């Protein structure tokens, strides 16, 4: 399958020549020039002419402002014409910047990258502009040269995916049209499209519910915040003062932050074993919790990609009359796959579910969702302001978008998702998800065979592998655990500084019960080869502090 988001080009020669009919743009070594102004319109043939002013006549002040330069708008019937030559410049600068970087990360570390960027940017607010092509060529090149590139198979630290080309192209179209998803008269078609996409994805999460729904969010942090907000409002509607959040030690940090922002009690934290919530610990916590409670389960932890025992946690929550929210920002796309969706059995027991398609969905940021079991769960978000959703407009049939988000102005992020779903279909996305899961299994096997590496014992996460150099264990045996962990941290930083690999870090329990520092490989590249994984393992093994 052609993905449009594969490996970065190697520096094997000059870029391919532009296609026939391509409008030439200045080369990188050409002097910066202002964009040419639009030609002046000729005066009518019979227009009267003013007599020439005397040479010494005083200058009269003008009653009108000076004519601004052409705006070059991206929308309208002339927008594509204005965009086309600029896009050629952007694509060329992306190509040259990626070649200049020649790896997953710019070499040299923060100071070198920052100094180079500041030199290029200076002055950040010039008195006079340099023109569209020069500005794009210079700054896009600088951004690409200094980027962490998730399209490189050795960029594997975070839940940071390489976006599909089709999704990026769709995002360009949405950006050019610039719908604002806070009122129907700013986004007529985008409103209808978002409704269709959110309902379809909500039905994937809650297939047995008659009216599931979903909101588009900026990501997992916002989705979790809104989930806790809705839980608080349900508790208040039932006569309680607040709601008690109960979560595992493996919960995403946004859960604690959301509770703080919403003025909720500090979450009750439940013990985990091997990275997953212990059901018996949850039972004990709920037995001593007074009032309404919201249990948080995680389907794909950030550090290890592990999935809590969802069916057991759901049963325990039901026993105590607690509600269940599942943070599936990482693992949610397993639902696309017929062979992997069983890992999320029990997810439809949740009253709300967090999803992120800018992780294991290959969308440009942002592409978050909050799915709810029933559309009525979203009613607490209802808000009215006359200029966006006047009551008489709503009664007349204009859709009300203000209750679809805690934000007002927001981008049409559902559009790129819609294009991707149409282009690949559920089964096409499933193949990409399955490839990443298989890649993790391959890297685990490679690590287990490697004499200089050791994998964290236990099951592999969704597409995450924890490993560490055996040299760190040897050092820990001689100088203590802190020395071993320091060795792991130093290896990671050396890889980053050299620009050779982007690897994360996580603390997790080892076989002997000790919590140690591990290197973390999060594999979200949908076209990684076994040879890429072998090279990554060797790169880690051969890096010494």
UniProtKB/TrEMBL annotation:
Its cofactor is pyridoxal 5'-phosphate. PROSITE patterns: DDC_GAD_HDC_YDC. Belongs to the group II decarboxylase family. Residues 21-48 have a biased composition (Low complexity). It comes from Streptomyces xinghaiensis. PANTHER family: CYSTEINE SULFINIC ACID DECARBOXYLASE, GLUTAMATE DECARBOXYLASE-RELATED. This is Aspartate aminotransferase family protein. Keywords: Aminotransferase, Decarboxylase, Lyase, Pyridoxal phosphate, Transferase. Residues 1-82 are annotated as: Disordered. SUPFAM superfamilies: PLP-dependent transferases. GO terms for biological process: carboxylic acid metabolic process.
